[in-house]
Amino acid sequence: MDAMDWKTLESTYIFRDEWLTARRDKCERPDGRIIEPYYVLEYRDWVNVVAFTKTGKVLMIRQFRQAYGATIIELPGGTMDPEDASPTVAAERELLEETGYKFEQIEYLGNVSANASTSNNRTHMFLATGGEKVAEQDLDDNEEIEVMELTVDEVKQLLRENKVVQALHVTNMLYAFERTGDIKM
């Protein structure tokens, strides 16, 4: 425990749903001050993957995002399901469902927070290599996903032009491309 950590004195759930839970906390700071209310949004953890095919192409996807109000380009990935034994299992499942590809190797790159001040979940980042198409997409009822196979240079151009708007996906690309030597940090 860090000396700056707050203590949660009470938590009251004000909304619960499969995809979003909101709670109101009463917290005590190390100096004894009480912070109330402090709202926290609870989500399942997420996974996303920079995925390279055997031919060296990067798999990207296009899909409509209601909250953003547009069709966007992003990485394959999604929400961890309760039955997923680990983030790696979730990443493998999401890759197969969204793209139809299986991969020889999936490397964990760490996790980041979408907004550590209000959301409790993490996004687990992966680098997958040696991908080969083995199946057709197996999409959820609310998904319509176009798979794109791009060169690293094409992906870098999308980044330069601010055409990848998912901040957590851009972060994963940074970690993955540093690992593959496609960028230097």
From TrEMBL:
Residues 42-172 form the Nudix hydrolase domain. CDD domains: NUDIX_ADPRase_Nudt5_UGPPase_Nudt14. GO terms for molecular function: hydrolase activity. One of its GO terms (biological process) is nucleoside phosphate metabolic process. Keywords: Hydrolase. It comes from the Bacteria. This is GDP-mannose pyrophosphatase. InterPro entries: NUDIX_hydrolase-like_dom_sf, NUDIX_hydrolase_dom. It catalyses: GDP-alpha-D-mannose + H2O = alpha-D-mannose 1-phosphate + GMP + 2 H(+). Belongs to the Nudix hydrolase family. NudK subfamily. Its cofactor is Mg(2+). The lineage of its organism: Bacteria, Pseudomonadati, Bacteroidota, Chitinophagia, Chitinophagales. One of its GO terms (cellular component) is cytosol.
